[in-house]
Amino acid sequence: MAVDSKTVQKVALLAKLKVDEDKVEATKDEFNKILKWIEQLNEVETQGVEPLVSVNEEHLVCREDEVTDGNIKDKILANAPESEFGYFAVPKVVE
Amino acid sequence: MTDLTDLTIAEALSAMKSKKISAEELTKAYIKKTEEGRKYNAYVLETPEVALQAAKVADENYAKGTERALEGVPMGIKDLFCTKGIRTTACSHIIDNFIPQCESTVTQNLLNAGVGFLGKLNMDEFAMGGSNETSCFGPVVNPWSKDVNLVPGGSSGGSAAAVAAKMCAAATGTDTGGSIRQPAAFCGITGIKPTYGRCSRYGIMAFASSLDQAGPMAKDVKDCALLLKVMAGHDEKDSTSSRKAVPDFTKVLGQDVKGLKIGIPNEYRPQGLNKDVEKAWDAAVDMLKARGAEIIDISLPHTKYALPVYYIIAPAEASSNLARYDGVRFGQRVDGAHLDDLYINTRTQGFGKEVKRRIMVGTYVLSAGYYDAYYVKAQKVRRLIQNDFKNAFEKCDVILTPTSPVSAFPIGDKSMIENPINMYLNDVFTVSVSLAGLPALSLPIGLSANGLPLGMQLIGKAFDEETVFKTAYALEQDAAFKRI
Questions:
Q1: Is B209 on the interface with A (CB under 8 A)?
Q2: Of A46, A79, A93, the CB nearest to B381
């Protein structure tokens, strides 16, 4: 499945990235090279094979649903590029 | 007195216990080496004051006889581990001002055992790379370089170079597709990626969550065994960390390998395999044979599909994990008129080329219409790769392969810059192990014709690091590799 320039732009948008106009062609070619390479998997017969989601064979245990920390607002905001009134601040999103 | 930085951790611990040396002397010796070795660009942040403070506490504990397992051992920490109050960047511009408010579980375990941190170590950006060239702090120089500057391997390139150049007693690493083992091989040191789940991933910036594992990188097998015991264990903060008891790995060192079944996969010996690598492999086989181990031919038929599987699964997981770097809660922000512009500007300017490439591939293989064709298909083949190992371990106890198909290559290698797939191919011997979640150790076995270290990889059954350590220790005795 080869991708075209439009798909490259669409994928970039989904990933919240921007590909400059003059780089779209090169990105597309590189993308197709990688896709072609990973498509060798189509040679493998996988009918009836259960997908392996995790190698972890132990059952995941649910812990008690209880608060284990809290009152750490300052820590949470410590690395924020911008914060105001105890919140993360971003450009206005409501007109 | 000999150079204190020549001592292994085991030797240094015994010297400190018997008061022959102090933790302060040992730490100062490593700080001096760190300063002398700045040309290697292994450290992205030096924290001598933190290490000296830990040494002071260590010397008090030795005086009182209350020393802990790794009391006074100075270590370097890969910059992917969050260290409380110490800048942690994943070597990416997007988060190059980040001061963690918490400590990763693995580094906390080391602190609790008395380790002091000399600083944070260089790596490929977000651990994506095999040469340490994608770091926003620039490449690391392999201490084995002669006329031309060579890469230390990656992604834990700073860790491997720092250990090789004796700029720390040992270092932490992380391994997603070979990031501990390949740099260990390139720099002539020893490193182990334990079984998936052995070490907690809490506080390690996530790359591919179903593959990431932390592990030690050190001067020899015994030091790795000592370190892993401390680093591993169940953690409530990571539900995928195993509840299995962590054995004392040093107990098996020196045990007989007679009768042990060593698997040799024929798929790892393709036509045109590098002659030096082949010779080193044969030599390692002979060493184990001479000790009475039984050599068994095995087959891992899906080996050739491991890399394509990896380059679907790892980017897919990375694209979700790296969604959090959006300029809102932490890291750098590049403003925009609207919130969406802020996200796009921040991510486009903050991430490096290889990271963006992988995010794009990951986003594509997860997108509507392609999910089954790529992602689910890769997960199915991943199952077949795991089954290959399960079948092989019916016949053998441990598997021996080279760690990498090549030795260290020059910084700025054109063929790899122009075609990322050529870089990806370096991981051909390490990725299938990661996909199967198995433990694997790399140790130096000898030198190539041009004098560069070559590593051997020992792969074990899940949670059987003991057999890996036992076999590695025997090989280490016979190889008698000379460190720098």
A1: no
A2: A46
Q: Is B261 an annotated catalytic residue?
A: no
Residue keyed to tokens 């919140």: A87
Instruction: Please name the helix (run of DSSP H) or strand (run of DSSP E) that holds residue B263, with its range, or none.
Output: strand B261-265
Total structural domains within chain A: 1
Within-domain flag for A21: yes
Domain boundaries, chain B: 11-253
Q: Which chain B residues are closer than 8 Å to A90 by Cβ?
A: 328, 339, 342
B418 touches chain A (CB under 8 A): no
What does the block give as tokens for B384?
Answer: 């077949």
CB contact under 8 A, A51 and B343: no
E strands within A1-95? 83-84, 87-88
pTM confidence score = 0.97
How many angstroms separate the CA atoms of B90 and B104, rounded? 13
Please, which pLDDT band fits residue B1 given cuts at 50, 70 and 90?
low
B155 tagged catalytic = yes
The answer to whether the CB atoms of B243 and A58 lie below 8 A apart is yes
Catalytic-residue membership of B135:
no
Instruction: Output the CATH code of domain B11-253.
Output: 3.90.1300.10
Query: What's the rounded Cα separation, in Å, for the pair B371 and A51?
Result: 13
Section B441-462 average pLDDT: 98
Q: Are the C-beta atoms of B313 and B379 separated by less than 8 Å?
A: yes
Q: Which residues numbered 318-357 in B keep a CB inside 8 Å of some CB on A?
A: 319, 323, 326-333, 335-340, 342-345, 347-348, 351, 356-357
Partner residue facing B101 (CB), from A43, A56, A78: A78
Strand-pair partners of A51: none
Domain ranges, residue A39: 5-43
The model's pLDDT over A63-87, given as tens digits with 9 standing for 90+, comes to 889 998 899 999 999 999 999 999 9
Q: Is residue A27 part of a domain?
A: yes
